[in-house]
Amino acid sequence: xxxxxxxxxxxxxxxxxxxxxxxxxxxxxxxxxxxxxxxxxxxxxxxxxxxxxxxxxxxxxxxxxxxxxxxxxxxxxxxxxxxxxxxxxxxxxxxxxxxxxxxxxxxxxxxxxxxxxxxxxxxxxxxxxxxxxxxxxxxxxxxxxxxxxxxxxxxxxxxxxxxxx
Length: 165
What we know:
Helix content is 17%, strand content 48%. The chain is of the alpha+beta class. Strands 1, 2, 3, 9, 10, 13 and 14 form a 7-stranded mixed sheet that branches. A 5-stranded mixed sheet has the order 4-7-8-6-5. A two-stranded antiparallel ribbon has the order 11-12.
């Protein structure tokens, strides 16, 4: 399973040396609807199946609540809702990306994980005005990989935007 392979890579002793090599970067690809996106693998702490999410009242709609992850309380953001995409029910392929961003753990709900993407830096282009249904403010750039264009999600910007509202 792709999540197990990624989680094993994240736990490996020489992970830091594997992140960037020969002007290539490692990303994790995931789907939201029909669109594929990617995030830097070094920001992901683990990928988990959906867990019981505890509702928190009076928060923004994209904030699903919190989970208890081995004694740590982790806020969970539904990326579809945050990015104003149509809502989809949780399925057997839905996953939560547990990421370390701005010195905090945050979980992002995604439809499914696709693959580890090793992409040459020369194949990453500047952010277009929009990428699919997402405003450019949440896209770091776009990568050309396997004859596809994949949006590079700016998770820091998403978290900063969540903190402002």
